[in-house]
Amino acid sequence: MSKVVKKCVNEFSRRGFLYSLLDPKPCVIHVRKQTFFSSNYSHHDQSNHGRNRKWTLAFGVGGALAVFAAHKSNDNKASAARYDPSSPFLGAGNTGGNTRRGAFNFVADVVQVAGPAVVHIERLVNVPFTRRAVAVSNGSGFLVESNGLIITNAHVVGNQSALNVKLQDGREFEGQVIGIDEARDIAAVKINCTGLPKIPLGTTRDLRPGEWVVAIGSPLALKNTVTAGIVSNMCRAGKELGLRDEEKRDMEYIQTDATINVGNSGGPLVNLDGEVIGINSMMASAGIGFAIPIDYVRDFLQQLEHGQQTRVQHTRRWIGVSMLSLTPEISSHLRARNPDFPDVTTGVYVHKVTPDSPSDIAGVQNGDVIIKINGKQINGVSDVLETLKQNQVLNASICRRGRTIVVRIIAEEIVH
User: Fold this and answer.
1) Which residue(s) pair with 151 in the sheet?
2) Residue 33: which pLDDT band, with cuts at 50, 70 and 90?
3) Whole-angstrom Cα distance, residue 399 to residue 185?
């Protein structure tokens, strides 16, 4: 039917609408050997025949144009009509709106769901000789419980136990820091309020590079700021970012090109389902930002006792040596400086031993080369650190002045 309509419209466009109506020649369009507009009627009066034909053409063209217009209108509205009214995303596309704005503004739909749970956090200090408190820094956070539990970055709260928290609706509350994990840069803040909107926690297990994400926060103290982008990398190692803290070096971060500026720290990185998948934490440059995966937050919340002041602690093992991974070039250079240097090209060179450290007590000396630990070959510093995570007692094979000795190092547990 649509082909017939288009042929009819094209014919009238070519010949002209009025000319086609008044032309005594019939407008005949054949479809599958059938005549759509036919003038093969038997009439006794030629004038009546002409008048009937013109009326037939007029009504036919009018109906055809009406069908064609309705068909095009339905095509334009089809995409909006497919949206599910029961969806939690209450944008115009799900409330009966038949515009492209309502159908395709998926970022606005995500913000409408997640935005009300994002908060603005200020660290206040009292000005000397006055009774006023002024904000010295600010950041963002998000509600994970309707009873006022907020997650943010540890560097946003700093060493203060009390903060000023501003909700999206304009209300302000005093927030109490109830938990902090400085190693992973996560903190929990509690405000005295109930019935608040919250953001569900998602997961990064099925996260893929290229997925759309939305960052919400208060960059440069500009509250309720929204930026969007994609996941550039979902497991960027902390050591690739040059982080010196050992705990952060072992963490993995979500890299995104959604803009993250100063003040965005602590805000949520949200997927298109309206779930938090990370905490906005760092910015390297324009288009390169990093978020702490939400899986670390889940572990943090499991360790946190709600309502009590808690500082999550981590332990690491320490043996007290400065080490250098050996390569053939480094070995050759060290051998040229010291004729007694062992004939090895791989292992770990002990540059300095800390006095009274576990290595010093075990008998490790400056200039030693560690080639094995607990029977496993050591090719670099990373092998030593990995073995240290798994074992507190290290039986290290050391090359020293042309001979190999074994020392027993008992690593020290450091709580931080």
Assistant:
1) 142, 188
2) very low
3) 40
Confirm whether 155 is a catalytic residue: yes
Asked whether 36 and 8 are in contact (CB, 8 A), the reply is yes
**Pairwise pLDDT comparison (414 vs 75), residue with the higher score:** 414
Distance of alpha carbon 80 from its chain centroid, rounded? 27
Catalytic residue chosen out of the listed positions 185, 331, 383, 397: 185
What pLDDT sits at residue 334? 87
CA atoms of 36 and 38, how far apart (whole Å): 6
Mean pLDDT on 205-225: 85
Helix residue ranges, H only, 28-124 = 46-81, 100-104, 106-114
Q: Is 43 a catalytic residue?
A: no
- Which of 144, 172, 86 has its CA nearest to residue 300? 144
CA 374, 379, 384, 385 torsion-angle sign: negative
| Closest by Cα among 337, 342, 387, 406 to 369 | 342
User: Quick check: is 79 catalytic?
Assistant: no
Other CB atoms within a 10 A radius of the CB of residue 340 amount to 9
Active-site annotation holder among 20, 218, 232, 265: 265
| C-alpha span between 267 and 282 (Å, rounded) | 11
> Of 155, 245, 295, 357, which is the active-site residue?
155
Query: What pTM was estimated for this model as a whole?
Result: 0.56
On whether the CB atoms of residues 212 and 170 are closer than 8 A, the answer is no
The values of phi and psi at residue 35, to 5°, are -100, 125
How many angstroms separate the CA atoms of 94 and 17, rounded? Answer: 41
